[in-house]
Every structure is written in C-alpha cells, then in structure tokens.
C-alpha cells in the first residue's frame, strides 16, 4: 500500500472516530481526504462520501436506536422531500454543471473548484453550529404545516446532495425547530434521514460514474471501525468540549480548502 492510500485509510478511521465521539461532523472530512490525500476529483469524491456517510450513519442509527434516541416516524416523514432532492441533484444537477462556471480575465472558475469552494462554505456553517452553545431545547407550541417542511427538506437535500456530506448540522436544528424533538433524539433521528438521503443520492451517482468498489468498501470499513471505537471512547470524553474543538478544526480545514482552490 502506497503512502497516500495509507493516510487515506487513516483519514477514514478518523472520520468514523469523530462520528462515534460526537454523533456528527466527521463526514465533512471525507471529501477533503479523498480529494487532497488520495487525488480524486471532487465529483467522484462527493459520490464516495455519500456512500461512506450513508453506511456509517446506518451503523450510528442502530446504536442510537438501542438507546431509544430515534424517532423513525418523524425521520421517515422528513426524509421524503430530502431524498428526492438528493437523488435529483446527484443524478441530474451535478453531472450537468458546466466544466467552466465563469471566467475573470485569465482566471477560470471551474466546476471542480466551485464544488470545493461551496463545500468550504458549508464547512464554515457546520463549524459555527458545533462551536455555538445550544443551551436550551425550547420548542414551538405548534408544528408548522408539512408543505413548509417539504420545501425546507428539498432545500436541505439539494445542498447535501451537491456537497456529498451528511448534513446533520442542518437536519438536527430542523428536527428541533420543526418536528419539536429534544436535542438528543434529534441527533439520533437525523441519522435516519442522513442514511436514506446519502444512499439514495449515491444510487444517482452509480448511474453516471465509474465506482471503484474495492477501494470504497475498504475505506468504508475503516470508517465503521472508527465509529465503533468512537462510541466506546465517548463514555470517557466530554462530547461538548470535543465538538467545539472539532468545530475550530473544521474552520481551519475550510480555510485550507479555499487556499488550495484559489491558488
């Protein structure tokens, strides 16, 4: 095994470890690992990320369900508009983004660069949500109409489909504010949505991309191993402090991505 692949699989283990420790956020490392360590183009990297995130979230769903922290009815109801948007964005939007988005003099904004820059912006938003203290689970007295939830699900699904990440930092607040779930149950329920969205989005990619299944399955296995270790270690480590630390690390990663893409 060459050095880049060795670092890549260590990165996969780290992704799973973070997911197991803090219940989310680790998936946003998958694309940078695949692009900058292993040299995959961003379109293929976001496709692989959807598979890794989907499978690892499935494992996480099972673990949360054993603790009674998953509301399957709410998760399945919310996932319907989301997975439609994820599938359509992966099947039709991403493949049809022009190779050159814009030209500014001698500077060319390419499709791959645009995906990574958009990914960096989403990473910033994810980092802010992890750093901020959520001190209360105050819930609205009445639920909003499902038509609004449907539109919001389409919006979130489109974003997560384009960047190839799980989108837990978007789904968790949505479940708290719109479905009125307590924070811990919202985290567990978000994994149901992430699992469905990611795997259905990946199905859209299978129809347009050539998948290296052997590599992808090994990479995913390493991430699953990381989740198992992370869940065990989470009993001894403060998740709140770890989430903040990872938030700051995510900001650094986002800045690095922007630097790499514009230079």
TrEMBL record:
<keyword id="KW-0812">Transmembrane</keyword>
<feature type="transmembrane region" description="Helical">
    <location>
        <begin position="153"/>
        <end position="180"/>
    </location>
</feature>
<dbReference type="Pfam" id="PF01925">
    <property type="entry name" value="TauE"/>
</dbReference>
<dbReference type="GO" id="GO:0005886">
    <property type="term" value="C:plasma membrane"/>
</dbReference>
<feature type="transmembrane region" description="Helical">
    <location>
        <begin position="7"/>
        <end position="37"/>
    </location>
</feature>
<feature type="transmembrane region" description="Helical">
    <location>
        <begin position="215"/>
        <end position="233"/>
    </location>
</feature>
<feature type="transmembrane region" description="Helical">
    <location>
        <begin position="245"/>
        <end position="262"/>
    </location>
</feature>
<keyword id="KW-1003">Cell membrane</keyword>
<feature type="transmembrane region" description="Helical">
    <location>
        <begin position="43"/>
        <end position="62"/>
    </location>
</feature>
<dbReference type="InterPro" id="IPR002781">
    <property type="entry name" value="TM_pro_TauE-like"/>
</dbReference>
<feature type="transmembrane region" description="Helical">
    <location>
        <begin position="186"/>
        <end position="203"/>
    </location>
</feature>
<keyword id="KW-1133">Transmembrane helix</keyword>
<dbReference type="InterPro" id="IPR051598">
    <property type="entry name" value="TSUP/Inactive_protease-like"/>
</dbReference>
<protein>
    <recommendedName>
        <fullName>Probable membrane transporter protein</fullName>
    </recommendedName>
</protein>
<feature type="transmembrane region" description="Helical">
    <location>
        <begin position="113"/>
        <end position="132"/>
    </location>
</feature>
<feature type="transmembrane region" description="Helical">
    <location>
        <begin position="74"/>
        <end position="93"/>
    </location>
</feature>
<comment type="similarity">
    <text>Belongs to the 4-toluene sulfonate uptake permease (TSUP) (TC 2.A.102) family.</text>
</comment>
<keyword id="KW-0472">Membrane</keyword>
């Amino acid at each position: 095994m060459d050095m880049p692949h060795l670092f890549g699989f260590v990165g996969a283990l780290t992704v799973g470890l973070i997911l197991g420790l803090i219940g989310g956020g680790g998936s946003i490392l998958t694309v940078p690992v695949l692009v900058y360590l292993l040299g995959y183009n961003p379109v293929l990297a976001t496709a692989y990320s959807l598979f890794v995130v989907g499978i690892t979230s499935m494992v996480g769903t099972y673990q949360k369900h054993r603790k009674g922290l998953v509301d399957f009815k709410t998760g399945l109801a919310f996932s319907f508009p989301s997975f439609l948007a994820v599938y359509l964005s992966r099947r039709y939007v991403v493949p049809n983004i022009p190779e050159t988005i814009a030209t500014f003099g001698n500077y060319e904004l390419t499709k791959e660069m645009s995906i990574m820059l958009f990914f960096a912006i989403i990473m910033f938003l994810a980092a802010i949500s992890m750093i901020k203290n959520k001190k209360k689970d105050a819930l609205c007295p009445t639920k909003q109409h499902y038509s609004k939830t449907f539109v919001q699900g389409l919006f979130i699904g489109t974003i997560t489909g384009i960047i190839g990440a799980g989108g837990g930092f978007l789904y968790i607040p949505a479940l708290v504010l719109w479905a009125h779930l307590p924070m811990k149950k919202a985290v567990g329920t978000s994994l149901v949505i992430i699992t469905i969205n990611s795997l259905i989005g990946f199905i859209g990619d299978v129809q347009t991309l050539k998948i290296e299944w052997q590599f992808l399955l090994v990479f995913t296995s390493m991430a699953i191993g990381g989740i198992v270790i992370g869940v065990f270690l989470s009993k001894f480590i403060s998740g709140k402090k770890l989430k903040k630390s990872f938030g700051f690390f995510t900001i650094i990663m986002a800045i690095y991505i922007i630097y790499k893409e514009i230079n």
